[in-house]
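Can't paste images in this forum, so I'm doing it all in text. The chain is below; anyone willing to post the predicted structure tokens underneath?
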Amino acid sequence: MSRIGKKPIVVPDGVRVRVDGQAITVEGPKGKLDGSLRPEVAVRYDEAGRSIVVERHNDDRQSRAMHGLTRALVQNMVTGVTQGYQKRLEIHGVGYIAAVAGDTLELRVGYANELKKKIPPELQVTCPDQQHIVVQGIDKQKVGEFAAEVRALRKPEPYKGKGIRYEGEAIRRKQGKVMAK
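Text version of the structure:
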């Protein structure tokens, strides 16, 4: 039995859950998320106990694999509609700046042209200052994917550490050229 899969998901007050066959809808104060379930697992919502239980139909390999995954995905949906998710990025480099203009993130990160990245409508992207970017949303996967796409525009390089990185991310630095004796 999956250790993660067998734990029930506690549903906080103010969150409504609807299970309709292989579809689940979670609605809370921050928004509404829909998800589809794999046929190997079933989700049961206990309204009296305010908990969601994920059960698998049999013990074959695919069912065991989907048991814990489905439970984690449903937990992420419940957390997203109650608290939301956030990724913080920081920009290092002389003259490297970021700004939000309408629904576009504009980055000047050492290239000849300014980079423009369209912000998805379900995410909120802000720049508290020119060296920081904050990505917020209720869908954990979309927040993480957008933050990774922004980081990939100018990955931190190992010699000077210039580029876009996650806040608190440690970059392994290389020594560079060594003078001959």
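The chain has a mean pLDDT of 93. The chain has two domains: 9-82, 85-166.
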